[in-house]
Structures are given as C-alpha cells and as structure tokens.
Amino acid sequence: MTNNARIGRAGAHAVMIGLSVLAIFPVYWMFQTSFRPQNEIFSTSLWPAAPTLDNYRDVMTAMPIFAILWNTFKMAAATTVAQIATGLLAAWALVRWRFPGGRLAHSLIALSWLVPFQVVMIPNYVLATRLGLLDSITGLVIPNAAAAFAVIVLYNAMRGFPREVMEAARMDGAGSFRTLIEVVIPNLRAPIASISILCFISAWNDYFWPLLLIRKIENSVVQIGLQFFMTQEGNDWGLLMAAATLASLPILLIYLVLQRQVVDSFMKSGIR
C-alpha cells in the first residue's frame, strides 16, 4: 500500500470517527443528564459529580411509564405487522396479475407516499370519532395499517423474483396465495426484515396522530408521555432525559440483539 493510499484511508477513517462521535454524543448527553441532580442539570461536565437515580424514581411516580412503553410497543408491533401484510398482498397483486389500470394503481400508490400524514389527519380523526376509536390502540393502528413505502419496496423485490419459480409452483398445483406464502415470502426475508425495522421505528416515533387521538395518560404512547415534562413554565430536563432514556432503550436493545441481521438485511435489500 502506497503512502498516498495510507493517508487517504486514514483520512476516511478520521471522517467516519468524527461523524460517529457527532451521532453518538447527543445520546450520551441524554444518558448522563438523566443521572444529574437538579442543581447540576446545566453543568457542562461530561459526567455528573454526584450521579443519582432520583430522576428515574420521579418519572415512575409522575406517570405509568412502563404501561406507556407497553402501549407503544403494542402499537408499533401491530402497525408493523399490518403494513407488512398489506404491503405483501398489494405488491403481489401488482406483480402477479396483469390487469387494466395496474400501472396507474402503482403510480397512485407511489404518489400517495408524497402526501404528508398531516393532510389526512383531520378526515382520519372524524372517521375514528364516528367509529368509536378515540383513545385506543386500535385507533392508532388502523389509519397506518397500509404504507406506500412498504408496497413500493416489496413490489420492487417481487418484480426481481424469478417468474419461472412461480410458474413451477403453479404447475405443481399451488394456488396464488399458497405460492406467495410458501415460495415468495421465504425468499424475501431480507427486504421484509428491512421494512419491518423501518416500520417499527417509524411507528415508535409517531407523534402527531397519537397527540390528536389519545386523551388519557394511561392510554398514551411514549412520544406523548415525554411531553408531560415540557410545560409553559419550563422543561424538567432531568425527568425528561430519564424518560427519553427509557423510551430509547427498547430500540437500542433491539438493534444490539439484531445488529448483524439489521446490517445484512439492509445490504441484501439495497436499502441505504
């Protein structure tokens, strides 16, 4: 390896290390602030002089934080399952069958991805009110049960699936639905895993729709629960950072446990 190559490689690693520090430092600051007593909240030291668990105790006293985390997990998991299921069925219909208006349907689905959820929040709220879904996990899941992004990614993955394999399954007597379940889906684990991760994180971080729909703190999700410590009189930073740390732990644990699968699935599916 030449000197220029070594210098270039060292420079690339230096840039990557710098970017990693920039990405990790806010998370570290949140974590260490959650252990600071009130009189050290605005200290610039990298670690509190007298770490304490008082902020965590106060969070558990102020709100049912674990019930809120469980509500968020149920909502995010149900939303992910629904989006993957509807995405698979829609993508399979667009790929498997040729019908008039198929390309138009695909184009409309792609265009709907560009429409922000805030545009349809009010109609969804009116519909949820009429159906009696206010202040419920079901009401949070149903409007997000289908995602254009999931349909598009799964459509592109299925379009590259060998048609000879699907035709062989049909000749062996497998129906369309059986071919999807037993042949196509097992060979699309990478894109399905990728989309599942992205859908779960997106649902976990959702704020606007729960803010509009949820009324009671015990039925709330974590993003709304964090707002409990942000008032017009000021923010309770110690409790807010403790609650944010607890809210971040499930996502961090999922990533640590599934780190290799996450990276492999993103690389195989082409998602960057």
Task: Write structural notes for this entry.
The protein has 272 residues and is mostly helical. The protein contains 14 helices and 2 strands, in the order ααααααααααααββαα. A two-stranded antiparallel sheet has the order 1-2. Strand 1 and strand 2 form a beta hairpin. Helix 1 packs across helix 13. The protein is globular. The mean pLDDT is 85.
Fraction of residues in H or I helices: over 70%
Radius of gyration: 23 Å
Broad structural category: mainly alpha
Strand order of the largest sheet: 1-2
Mean pLDDT: 85
Alpha carbon gap, first and last residue? 30 Å
Q: What order do the SSEs take from the amino end to the carboxyl end, as H and E?
A: HHHHHHHHHHHHEEHH
Strand content: under 5%
Shape: globular
Number of helices: 14
Largest sheet: 2 strands, antiparallel
* Poorly predicted parts: none
How do the strands and helices of this protein lay out in sequence?
Layout: H1 3-33, H2 54-62, H3 65-96, H4 102-112, H5 117-130, H6 137-141, H7 148-159, H8 163-171, H9 176-184, H10 189-204, H11 208-213, H12 222-226, E1 230-231, E2 234-235, H13 237-257, H14 259-269
Antiparallel strand pairs: 1-2
Helix pairs in contact: 1-13, 2-13, 3-7, 3-10, 4-7, 7-10, 8-9, 10-14
